[in-house]
Amino acid sequence: MKQLKKYIIIGIIFVLIAGTLAYFLYEWTRNNFVIGLFTPVNESVWEHMKLLFFPMLIYTIVAVFNLKKDEPCVISAFCFGILLGTILIPFFFYTYISILGRNIFALDVGTFVLSTIIAFYSVYKLTLSCKLKAYTFLLCGLVAVLFICFLVFSYHPPELPIFANLEKA
Q1: Burial of 100 per CB tally in 10 Å (0-12, 13-18, 19+)
Q2: Is residue 83 part of a domain?
Q3: How many other C-beta atoms can be found within 10 angstroms of the C-beta atom of residue 166?
Q4: Which of 82, 109, 15, 90 is CA-nearest to residue 47?
Q5: Are 111 and 92 in contact (CB under 8 A)?
């Protein structure tokens, strides 16, 4: 349990730092196509979901590799955490936008931080409770589907509000 707590705290820090750096990486690499598959290519809500998804996915691979022997439910917990954290970003964003009528940068950052903390908290609780172990395959499959969607929709987004570039709005 001590080792799990350590991984959760380090994971939160890792995702917050990596996600923050990822925000700038596409521009820093002069709009590198491959980098754009994994980092935001515009200011849409969808693209900002990548800030949590990909760093947490990378961290999940490392954490699962090191924890699976002692924590048999860690895979399902991390997959759920990735999905939850990623979905919370648009949930929080559209909730506060509907209340305030506009987006505010500090609240956007807060959305990312809060989504990350909640995602990792759920990983911790679900690893200990093993409530989702029976759904490991489904949860991993959903993470894989979301992964593919991020790759496809980076450069070919559907015409839906979540994909709209808010910088141009």
Answers
A1: exposed
A2: yes
A3: 16
A4: 90
A5: yes
Tell me which DSSP letter residue 101 carries.
S
Q: What is the dihedral of CA 132, 137, 143, 147, to 10 degrees?
A: 170
Burial class of residue 128, CB neighbours in 10 A (0-12, 13-18, 19+): middle
Full residue range of the structural domain in which residue 56 is found = 2-163
In a domain, 132, yes or no: yes
Q: What is the pLDDT along the chain (169 residues), one digit of tens a residue?
A: 789 999 999 999 999 999 999 999 999 999 999 999 999 999 999 999 999 999 999 999 999 999 999 999 999 999 999 999 999 999 999 999 999 999 999 999 999 999 999 999 999 999 999 999 999 999 999 999 999 999 999 999 999 999 999 986 5
169 in a structural domain: no
Cα–Cα distances in angstroms (integers) from residue 73 to residues 48, 70, 76, 131, 145, in the given order:
28, 9, 6, 8, 21
Give the number of domains in the chain. Answer: 1
Domain membership of residue 76 (yes or no) is yes
Q: Which amino acid is at 64?
A: V
Note the pTM of the prediction, 2 decimals.
Answer: 0.96
